[in-house]
Amino acid sequence: MSHEVVRKDEVLLSSKGRPPWYSPTGKAVPSYVIGIAGGSASGKTHVATSILRQLNHIPTCLILSQDSFYNKLDAEKNAMAHRNELDFDAPEAIDMQLFAQCVRDLKEGKAVNCPVYSFDEHQRLEETKYLYGASVIIVEGILTLCSPELRDLYDLKIFVNADSDVMLSRRILRDTKERGRDVDGIIAQYLRFVKRSYDTFVLPSSKHADIIVPGQDNDTAKVLLAAHVQREIDARSLRFRSKLMEQNAPRSRQTTAQDMEVSEEQEPFFTLLKQTNQLQGIMTILRDASTPRSEFIFYVDRLSSLVVEEALGMLEYGSVKVTTPLGVSASGMTMLQKSVVGVCIQRSGGPFVKGLRRVIRDVRIGALLIQSDNSTGEPLLFHTSLPDCVKSDAAKDTVVFLMDAQISTGAAAIMAVRVLLDHGIQERHIVFLTYLVAPQGLAAVYKAFPAVRIVAAAKGYDTEEWTFSLPKHATGTSSPVEMEDERSPTDADTGGSHHLQEAFKRLQFNRRSSDTPQETKKKAWIVVPDCGAFGDRYLGA
């Protein structure tokens, strides 16, 4: 398990991708939340991190500190804080409403912008920290069990009990080394505020705890707690890709004119490009395994532009008056949406980006790294790299073109839509662009998110399950190869970002490191008739 320091008191731990955190209908399953309280320097953070180290196969874990939610101080109170004359240990010092709302949103799977607190400035800063995707959330702080609103959000409540002398000595060591405080000030603040708060608020809150853990020599307790949390997480594990394929299988494998039609129920959910001779000719070239890579790239870019142009026609337009170069007034149309972004599902969604940029000038691009588990075929979310407007209050008014090469069972598509909904994007503002869609995937996405619109270039007639035998290290990717008269696609073309590309490299490295010496098995569901691996054919396998 690797870790990323979000800031000094908050740590986001991640491992081998986050499996589905929602039902087949797209409804989110709440994260598991643990509340840990105890006196100042009792060992709360140590207990939290120790529990996480004991866990196995936990995708993402977050330790959220109460210290982030101190109330903002005016100039007078800030000056008192620097003189150690302000009580930071009473419930009134914490913005409990914001604290509870942040924990609630994280538990519901939503992205949040968490406050950032500076101990040097004794002030909550204007900047915030983006947090998303934790399946286990540990909330720690001296007052985390005092608020009934917070207690209602915890699945497990823990109180860390330590001797007062031990807590004082730990506090002196911590504040002198980490926060630059002097010993006299630390002791004065402890006697005036900290001890009184502990006796009045903190210790009485222990009656709400499900378990009380000693602040030292607690190895047995940590092992037992980790085992309990592991059982709870295993019980919430969701696997349903095979079920999606079975439940939404077509009645017949025969390709007929009726198979290509759009039902009244699916209109305007699904739009299939008009199947002209030109379009069918492009699809024939893409399906042909002998098509050279340079020619494949050319026709994918051409097809991307056609799909994007069709999708643009679904947005809202309004009347506008303009003046021509000769000074004549003319009536026209203008797009009403102020913010349109593209989000590609890496790696196969990357080829869409060049076509999108040809049609929409200066469009902002984000990406999701979603890869299938080799053994189960279930989608795993490894990384999100989204534009700022998606991670802010502007998300509710933002239209997202979500892009992937194909929709087979619909599992990855549902995961990607769920990520966008967790960030506040409206379901009706999501337009899924794809080259190829299977009936099973179309039905699965429609059942989960009927307000999402899908635009596809072609429709298959079935989805088949395949198991590939890959040689060792075959899961890695090679760099794009320069071709004559045709440059290779770059990160800018494919919607990649530095962080997401680095995450992809780490993913491939971890997979190679865990491969057996002989071979790796990979399970996948293929749209029939297929076009192969779009990402590999476009970027270079």
From TrEMBL:
SUPFAM superfamilies, sorted: P-loop containing nucleoside triphosphate hydrolases, PRTase-like
CDD domains found in the cross-reference section: PRTases_typeI, UMPK
Top-level enzyme category: transferase
Domain spans labelled Phosphoribulokinase/uridine kinase: 33-215
Domain Phosphoribosyltransferase: 275-458
Molecular function GO terms recorded: ATP binding; uridine kinase activity
Enzyme Commission code: 2.7.1.48
Pathway it works in: Pyrimidine metabolism; UMP biosynthesis via salvage pathway; UMP from uridine: step 1/1
Disordered as annotated region, ranges: 472-497
Gene Ontology terms: biological process: UMP salvage
Annotated protein name in UniProt: uridine/cytidine kinase
